[in-house]
Amino acid sequence: MSRSSRQVFLLIVSYTALAVAWGWRLHANDAPPKRDDALLDTTRAEIVSRLVTAPKKLQPAALFQLALLPENEALALHEWLQDLPEQRLRKLTVQQGPVHAPCPLNTALIFAELERADAPLIDDTRLLISAAGDRLEERHKLAALELLASKAADNHEHNLALEIHQRACESESATWENVLALADAARLARHPAAALKVVNAWLEPSASRLDAALRDDALDLQTGLLLEGSRHAEASRITLDELRALKLNAAIPPRLMQRALLATHAAGESAELLPWIERHLRTFPDHQFSVEDIAAGKTVSADYVRWLHESSAIADRQNHTSIACDGFFRLAAAGETRVLARLHALATQMGRGQELASLFTALQRRFSILELAQALADGNSPAPARDLLAAHLKTSPNNRAGWHLLTKIDTRQLGAASAPMLWEGFLKRFPGDVPALKHLAQLQLNNAQYPQALRTLLQMSGEDLDEATLRQITTLAIQLDDLPTAIRSQQLIVQGSKQPAVSDVLTLATLTRQSFDADSQAVLAEAVAKLPAQTAFQKTLITPTTTGEASSFSTAVQAK
Q1: How far is CA 510 from the centre of its chain?
Q2: Helix or strand or coil: residue 61?
Q3: Nearest to 142 by CA among 98, 179, 112
Q4: Is the terminal CB of the chain with fewer CB neighbours within 10 Å at N or C?
Q5: For residue 447, what are the domain limits?
Q6: Are residues 458 and 471 in the same domain?
Q7: Distance in angstroms (rounded) separating the CA atoms of residues 165 and 152
Q8: Does the global pTM surpass 0.85?
Q9: How many domains does the chain have?
Q10: Where does 170-252 have alpha helices with state H?
Q11: Could you read off the pLDDT of 191-209 as tens digits, one per residue?
């Protein structure tokens, strides 16, 4: 560079430095920009009002940070408040926001935005929450996703709710409660396979996220989801494999037995479970008792009775008659009278009638003959029930309840056509039996035997006539033109009520006018007096009708 060029360059630099120095001196005494305190206070107040909708546990830290917020960030919050809802949420999650993140204030503002009425669409919001990265702690991200899933379910967007729960369960911080929420959402969306995939992942040995208690919960949920998805054979295979994996002398966990029972029943493979149930039964001390001991009053546990019933029922379905019969004997001895009918059929078939008779004799110390007969009849074994009752009634001929049950059993055996005759026979033995009279009357009505039904109802004494029966008598008497009976039954209806219905009084007035006498008129006047005071109306009811002859009249037009 030549000497003249260097001089020119130095001259330019000198003048530039001089200009900068004079500029600094001219502005050195300028007043600093004024703070707009009112704007900052308004912004903080608006933020506080929004934080009210955030979770309570997030509010204290967020409010504390807001109180100490630098002026520049408070001004940034003011500008942020002017944005559209979606843009506000973007700045809090995936873009540069008004405050540094992650921080309590940013987190609380995210939840507050989710609760606002003008919040963005749930589908868009869940994408922003999922993409928030380090700007939102993982536990808060899970809570936000659960909140969005709940809102989607409330809006009946079950598939969207399921997708959000699936995203939550992908997190390393997901808990078993998140999986349970996913299962509920999958059921509502009718897509149990989505939850099953997650449950299977949690059950992997390498996952090691479940303790012993939660693992049982997970296995129960796995079986339930398989059955709900109609994957019955797979559920049965898994539970039976668990049973086969047990050590030879190990006790079978009750929850595993319950899962296996549900799965094998659904898959039609109950026979595969029968040996395991028998093994389970042998672990109960109750299994050492004999049938005679149990019938004599030895207490057995409800759990033992339950599995004994399952074993007997499966054996019966699979035609393992001996096993089923032994089980039913023990159940009946324990007081399970509902198995008596099936036990009677199997014991008779296998030639164990003597044992059966001994058992019935022992059971009579705890149950009446009528209860045993009723149990047999309820189990569709009316013949042995009748034999048992008939033998009892020979020694107790006045046992009304026994004859009543025998009549019902005979009706079942002989058919509905013979029912009226059978109940008439019962009433000859026990005249005036109210339930039998009502039952017979109903049978006669069903057969359109209206005069007989009326005669049957009139056999009841006055104190046994309830309102429904009286109304039935009135209807039948009117239908059969039996006016005195209709009037008397309607009078009893009205007299039996402190405030009779107007329709009942009108019916009584109509009937009374058709067969006027002083006593009927007095009862009608008493009934009318109970009605609300309407003088003209009352008079029309109690005024007797009169008859006379019509005078002659002419239809001809008179000429003018």
Answers
A1: 51
A2: helix
A3: 179
A4: C
A5: 426-462
A6: no
A7: 11
A8: no
A9: 2
A10: 176-188, 192-203, 212-228, 232-244
A11: 999 999 999 999 998 877 8
